[in-house]
Amino acid sequence: MRQLRGQERVITANRQTSWAFADAFVAEDEALHVARERAHELGLRPVSPGTGAALRLLAAAADAKAVAEIGTGTGVSGMYLLHGMRPDGVLTTVDPEPERQQFAREAFRQAGFATNRARFIPGRALDVLPRLADGGYDLVFCDGDRLESLGVLAESLRLLRPGGLVCFEGVFADGRTVDSAAQPAEVLRVRELLRAVRESQELMSTLLPVGDGLLCAVRRG
């Protein structure tokens, strides 16, 4: 491996410090703190504050009324999305573990969201998404099984209205996505996802360096 020169070390250190500052910049309330702690207790990895804030901003910019979330977890990302959505917006959140969704229900309630603001559907993403309405969503957020990401992308293109957004969390895979060493199947699938999104004629995309990497794309009209 090539050794970093002095200036490169400074740039790398500054970049890491800047990423840490971006997360620290976001103030989280008690409901988010509780949901985050529950996630850690269950061995889950919730979105970082920086990633959550980016999702909140994107939902607000899209004036989102209908959002689909893959991977409810304990409700951290869902709360960020709800904070960015319209006051009458509904979050449809999918997770294979009903217990996690119960934690998310409690978190949403603690955050002050009415019960009709979220629709919880237990099940695998690729079993549930085909049942959702064509063109009925402003934003689709995926923080689920990486091996299903290409299938989720295909379903998202069907679900999104023109101008809608699709976002995938964790595309850096802790640095393994760009590591030249042999990688597991889930990392290889992330690489395929990145290539598919970048080359798609239906999408305009970017990769945000927040958390563990947030891939975002707008469905062209």
UniProtKB/TrEMBL annotation:
Keywords: Methyltransferase, S-adenosyl-L-methionine, Transferase
Keyword Transferase included in the entry's annotation: yes
GO molecular function, one term: O-methyltransferase activity
GO annotation, biological process: methylation
Organism superkingdom: Bacteria
Keyword match S-adenosyl-L-methionine: yes
InterPro entries tied to this protein: SAM-dependent_MTases_sf, SAM_O-MeTrfase
Listed name of the protein: O-methyltransferase
Lineage of source species: Bacteria, Bacillati, Actinomycetota, Actinomycetes, Kitasatosporales
